[in-house]
Amino acid sequence: MTNWGILACGNIARKFAQGLVFAPNAKLLAVASRSQEKADAFGAEFGVERLYGSYQDLATDPDIDIVYIASPHTGHCEHAILCLDSGKGVLCEKPLAINAQQVERMIAAAQRNERFLMEAMWTRFLPMMNQVRAWLDEGAIGPLQALYADFGFRAGFNPEGRLFNLDLGGGSILDVGIYPLALAVQLFGEPNRVQAIANLSPTGSDEIALFNLGFPGGAMASLSSAIRATTPMEATIVGENGLIRLHRPFWKATLLTIEVQGKDAVTTARPFESTGYQYEATAAMEAMEQGLLEHPLMPWGDSLILARTMDEIRNQIGVRYPGE
After folding, report:
1. Which of 123, 157, 181 lies at the terminal end of a domain, its last residue?
2. For a disulfide at 215, which of 86, 92, 219, 290, Cβ 3.0-4.6 Å?
3. Which residues sit opposite 210 in a β-bridge?
């Protein structure tokens, strides 16, 4: 049995806790919030035994094996290092940190303490992505040429909320743009060309961003993210001999269509139970059981590529976070 702790008790933590119920041999032993009242309420909802009013108390609990970091973006680096230095494995909500420099510090902490660290890019572990990998491994659509993907929704403008507040790492790119970007990196690796434009909110965060990427070998990706506009939320992977569609919402698609030249299109269902977060939790536990410090499907190198690319996109559109 693997004992889990959850650091911070917001909406994403709730989704993770709901999914963790479906992860074999996982137990949610403890949760922590900076508010004891919030920790108590979260614990009552999910039947958690240990309820902490400080992150330090969670990190130093000797019975916890791994901590899921669910704090706002700007807290990820500090909180992950706190847990790693306390001997815990860490599954940290995406983005792993707000910039590449922080990601490097987190990786160094994992190496220094010989503890597992993974960015919680949960989509890579869903059943639909297993199917995509199988098609690509067999060369079903030929050599890859391009990716078209978007993730946008319309949120009400709240200058103090985490989506728009730069002090909390606000903006569409870090919040939802990372989904199409992570798919591009999974398919093509690190881009060598980045072109980005964006509209900024009154707080200086990006409301909608368009970014085109070029990769060694000639593959390209046309991506977008938005927090003030609803977009199709689909992804299309293009190869020389066909394409794969990840139907809306692409990052947690349960329907996929493959279209190969000269053949009829085939749509495949890949449903999942609960929130789907159980798959990344299971992957993290399996990696830890094998003595791994990183997971091969979401390695540190990919997290660094994501952070460096988002840094470059933000540099081009003029979004800076405090302290940068």
Report:
1. 123
2. 219
3. 197, 224
Residue type present at position 189: G
CA-to-CA distance for 61 and 225, rounded, in angstroms?
Answer: 39
Residue 307 parent element (H or E): helix 300-317
Q: Are 73 and 145 found together in one domain? A: no
Shared domain check, 179 and 113: no
Amino acid at 132: V
Structure confidence by residue, pLDDT tens digits, 147-200: 999 999 999 999 999 999 999 999 999 999 999 999 999 999 999 999 999 999
74-99 average pLDDT score: 98
| Residues 181, 124 contacting (CB under 8 angstroms) | no
38 is catalytic: no
Total domains in the chain come to 2
3-state SS class at 222: strand
Tell me: do 112 and 157 sit in the same domain.
no
Burial label for 193, CB within 10 Å (0-12, 13-18, 19+), is exposed
User: Each residue of 44-61: pLDDT tens digit?
Assistant: 999 999 999 999 999 999
